[in-house]
Amino acid sequence: MKKHLLLIVLVVIIGALPCFLQYGDYLLMDDFFRQEIPFIMETKRMFSSGIPFWSWNTFFGDNFISSYGFYTLTSPFVWFNCLFPYKWLVHSLFLTLVLKYICTYLASRMFFRKMDVSEVNANIGGLLYAFSSYAISNSFYYHFFEPMIIFPILLVAIERFLRREEYNKTTLVLAAFLTVFINYYFAICSFIAAAMYVFCRIAFNKDRILLLKRAPLGILLIIIGILIDSFLLFPTASHLSGGARATQGILTGLDFTAVPFFIERLRTLFMLQPLEETTTLFQGTGFNSCSVTLPVLGIFLVFAYCWNYKRSWITGLIIVSLIAFLTPINTIFSLFTNPNYTRWAYALTLFLILASVKWMDLSQNKNPIALKSVFIYSFIAIGVFLFALWRGNGIEESINKLQFGAYTFLLFISLACLVAFVYTSFSKRVLLAGILICATFQMAIFNILRSDIGFSLASKKESQGMVKRYLVDKKLDRMSDDNFMRYRTAFEARYPNLGLLTNRPSVSTFHSVLNTNLYQFVTIADTANVIFWNAFVPNYYRRSFYALMSVKECVVYHDSLSNRVDEKMNYTRKSNSPGFTLYQNNDFIPMGFTYDTFISENTIDSLKNMTPQPDVPKVLLSHLVVPSSDKTTFAKLLKEANKVDLNANIDSIVACRQKYCSMSFEGTTSGFTSKIYLPKDNFVFYSVPADKGFSAYVDGIEVPIYKVNLGLSAISVPKGLHNVFFEFLPAGLKEGVVISVLSLLLLIIITYKEVRSSSNFYIT
């Protein structure tokens, strides 16, 4: 096994050379540098703060537990990265990538050994799983690896439970807990796949009645394991309810509108996948998470096993899994997201490998495969490949040529290794060499296509050089926590998460877990001027928007598109550096300011239908926008505006808002403090999401928080000098912690009983 671990390290290093030669580090385009790196940096900052509740660098501030539970919060690999200084983070990311491949190999190897696969073939199976197309082509989704590692462990726990091995109940509870803890969304995929596994395991077993009787207890133990995660699940559910993900409903695709996406997956059973799919069978779109191809073997040995062992439960599992994979049934794995996703492909991959290594174990050359079978398989694989290219549409010619060369090279390398494997009567050395060769080439090609070189060859002008410009050159230093969150910064650049990278609260964020409170603000308040694709990215930079959101500094990168500034900005240049210019926003209004008038949200609803759409942020800056149901409350201190002056002078509006505003403001990871003087009683507006986890205090006395300006906050403050304090505790956290503790006590009781009765354990 030590030899295999060394070979894994060697393959990953060689496969990463294209990135090291370009950047001196392991860096990739798209989500790896758009989300994964900045999210890990923010996680490290939040952990070091001591109270990781409120992240000012996410959106306009957001619930850290709920926003990062899907990505980084519960990842041991991220915890390891957080031990290093920020400047070493990229180096440590590659180290943890190597560790992930190793852990994936070890976890799957443990499962194959549990399934009575010989040690030699279990090692082969572990390598097939670790270097499957799913693993390689999803490596830039940093958080996709952990479910791959945990899923085989979950199946091992299920096997232990079915066989009544020692401490089987405790093991099953812990495995269920870890499955959810590591990634609560992927847990849906893992549990459904595990249910298919258990169904086939029981249905084809002669002792099915005995095994079936244990099913209710097993389900109860899994529920207990899930409930231990309540401290994470309750705040997350509270945060996401009513948001974009939840309100879009369950995207099933069962109306067969998504059938082309499901048919497209047929190709991934045969073909390697080094890049997100742009050459699909029927649609010009696709995702890395579709791929299940095994290095060298594909599903060749799977066919051999199923043909020779037709009544095996593994054959039944393969058939059930492929039906789920290739039909709209797949969508039960992808709730609340695109029906085209196949993020559970790691489970199918593991099942296919189980059949492959089982065949190698059981055949022992008694049922040798003729070379003609290899050629028939190769003919089918090449046919699917060519058919996919023929049916692919909406593809840039340069991408098509680029991918055609990569796919063709990898396909023929795989087939050549497969021929060599069969010709040498299934030599394990030949198969091992073939796996490593294919994995190395696929990883290297993937890293080329996912780098600046690949995007340049693909003529994606908007993305060329982004990794080098924003991550390698490091033109803007990271702000220290000592000067943190007194104002916001605007980054006028193509890259939306520069605030996370540089520790500057920004007005543009790319984050897939959408902020529920900002949903109305983004989709209604500035519909024509904001791109909303799992992100908040101003499409045009307006003085009114920056003033409303308390932007003090503007970093204008020299790659910015000039048409993204639709009016003259009120800037003063502070410094000019290679690659960007730093400006001071003269329209800056400290966070926490007052209004004289208000309007109802109904007025904003009428404005959004106007053509051309008016400057809605300027309207929000002119008048406090309140829900119609709260008009009576705000009428006590403010006048209701009779009409909205769409041509009002922005200079005079800003001057009015700057007249009475906070004397000081400082954000923390548990809220913020503010000091303000008012000549009369008034409502003070803070451009902070009106999250239900906030509590507000004026001079230590709690006051209600009102939802204004389509999702932001305001409180009532009496005249005079006052200290304002907002304290954040994630909604649902207390209840979740209580349930987690009670569930943990149940686990302790279960473990205690198993220890007491350990002498009665037996294996069936």
Q: How do the strands and helices of this protein lay out in sequence?
A:
Blueprint: H1 2-15, H2 17-23, H3 31-49, E1 54-55, E2 62-63, H4 64-68, H5 76-81, H6 89-114, H7 119-130, H8 133-137, H9 145-162, H10 168-182, H11 184-203, H12 208-213, H13 215-227, H14 230-240, H15 244-247, H16 259-264, H17 300-308, H18 313-326, H19 345-363, H20 371-391, H21 397-423, H22 428-449, H23 452-457, H24 466-472, E3 488-492, H25 498-502, E4 509-510, H26 519-525, E5 530-531, E6 535-538, H27 543-548, E7 551-557, E8 571-577, E9 580-585, E10 593-594, E11 597-600, H28 601-607, H29 616-622, E12 624-626, H30 631-635, E13 639-640, H31 650-659, E14 662-668, E15 671-678, E16 682-689, E17 694-698, E18 701-703, E19 706-708, E20 712-717, E21 720-728, H32 733-756
Parallel strand pairs: 3-7, 11-12, 11-13
Antiparallel strand pairs: 1-2, 4-6, 5-6, 7-9, 8-9, 10-16, 14-15, 15-21, 16-20, 17-18, 17-21, 19-20
Question: What would you note in describing this structure?
Answer:
This protein has 764 residues and is of the alpha+beta class. It is globular and about 95 Å long. It has a five-stranded antiparallel β-sheet, with no helix packed on it. Helix 10 packs antiparallel against helix 11 (184-203) and helix 10 crosses helix 13 (215-227). It contains 32 helices and 21 strands. It folds into three domains: 2-29 and 74-457, no CATH class; 479-585, no CATH class; 593-597 and 614-728, Maltose phosphorylase, domain 3. A hairpin with a 6-residue loop joins strand 1 (54-55) and strand 2 (62-63).
